[in-house]
Amino acid sequence: MNETNFEKLASTVRGFTGIDKNQPSLGYRLETQLVRGYSSVDSQTGAISVPIHLSVPYVHPSFDETTGFGYGRYGNPTRLELENTLAMLEHGLKGWAFSSGMAAISALVKLFSPGDHLLVSDDLYGGTYRLFTTIYGRYGLEVTYVDTSRLSEVKKAIRRETKGVFIETPSNPMMHVTDIKAVAELIKNINGLTVVDNTFLSPYFQRPLDFGADIVIHSGTKYLGGHNDIMSGFLVIAHESLIEPIFTFTMSEGGALSPFDSWLTLRSLKTLGLRMEKQQQNALALFEFLKNHKKVEKVFYAGDPEHPGYEVSRRQTTGWGGMISFYLKDKEEAPRVINRLKLILFAESLGGTETLLTYPFLQTHGAIPEEIRNAVGVNEKLLRISAGVEDAQDLIQDLEQAFR
Ligand SMILES: Cc1ncc(COP(=O)(O)O)c(C=O)c1O
């Protein structure tokens, strides 16, 4: 076998190729794509529910032939179906599924080298802050936290070593909205990468690659999984040049999603649209309740017509999502309200069928130094709600009695 043949074999085993632009599913509309996934049915058996392939090694039919799979860390048929489905939904070229959102972000960071400088949204999930600063800071990654919803701030923070921007929009937990297209154009001019954490809206409401982003990341633990029972993460890329480096990190590090969790996530995606519509409906009902309540000082919701990012959201999203944050007038009320809740669960996640209330100051954002938390507004008055799919009146009644 000559080297070219071997390279071909290696690249198939590694799953190097992007999704097939002629796959019939790419011609369907979003809700059909969600239900049917990339392959629609299993071509070998006709199974409508994608089979769970547990095998780690894959037999090669001969010395220079391959089925396209070699070893579980490099590729797995169930996981590949999920990765292709995510790439299709995000309008990308290729996707990778990881065992958590943080594992996906950690793989992404390896695209950068010591001394490289990254701009990162100043309001973001605390675990992402910890990863960039506490972990990768030690390996020479330089990060400037900036309010990416203000283009002038992004422009000002660019340096000669700047190699990219990492955006959360809407941001967690203050719901800042960043104009993806405007920032991506700016970053393209310096040959940098625009990365968007699309966890809060999912491809159902927002597809950042359509607006010039190069990479989308997800905590699939949230809306994509949607039932508070799977941890997963995703990277979806827009350019072929990113395939080789990301594949090399993922095959070397081994943070890939298990076959069972890949199957569970495919199963969850079928109802993503239904869930997100209901979660948004509930969030809107909660928004109306909270903004008129005497104990509430301010509500942060991307769907509020008075939100500074409302017009940008209308341009780049098809919905506002199910996440709301709000300030109580009195910080002493926060523990009291939390302790009085009966239906809404005091827990640290989001995007699932159950409505959760989080205290970001001590929970999701506890890893961020207090002065930074205070500067971005993550203080002791702030509560965050992830609307679930329950009856909206039951949720409102629960808050009403908790506020009393
Ligand atoms: C916006 C956002 N990105 C990334 C993550 C990390 O994802 P995971 O918990 O799946 O590792 C989270 C977790 O809360 C998040 O909220």
Question: How does this structure look, described?
Answer:
With 404 residues, the chain is an alpha/beta fold. The chain folds into two domains: 3-269, Aspartate Aminotransferase, domain 2 (3-Layer(aba) Sandwich); 272-403, Aspartate Aminotransferase, domain 1, CATH 3.90.1150. It contains 15 helices and twelve strands. The strands form two sheets. The protein has a seven-stranded mixed β-sheet with strand order 1-7-6-5-4-2-3, with helices on both faces. The chain has a five-stranded mixed β-sheet with strand order 8-9-12-11-10. α11 (272-291) runs parallel beside α15. The mean pLDDT is 95. The protein binds pyridoxal-5'-phosphate (PLP). Pyridoxal-5'-phosphate binds next to α4 and α5.
Short characterization:
The protein has 15 helices and twelve strands. With 404 residues, it is α/β, with parallel strands linked by helices.
Give the helix tally.
15
* Number of domains as seen in the coordinates: 2
- For the biggest β-sheet, the strand order reads 1-7-6-5-4-2-3
Helix content: 25-40%
- The rough form would be described as globular
Distance between the termini: 77 Å
Low-confidence stretches: none
Sheet-strand content, in percent, reads 5-15%
What is the N-to-C order of secondary-structure elements (H for helix, E for strand)? Answer: HHHEHEHEHEHEHEEHHHEHEHEEHEH
Radius of gyration over C-alpha positions, nearest whole angstrom:
22 Å
Highest CATH level, the class of the largest domain: Alpha Beta
The overall pLDDT average reads 95
What would CATH call the homologous superfamily of the largest domain? Type I PLP-dependent aspartate aminotransferase-like (Major domain)
Q: Mind telling me which CATH architecture of the largest domain this is?
A: 3-Layer(aba) Sandwich
Query: Could you say what the CATH topology of the largest domain is called?
Result: Aspartate Aminotransferase, domain 2
The bound ligands are: pyridoxal-5'-phosphate
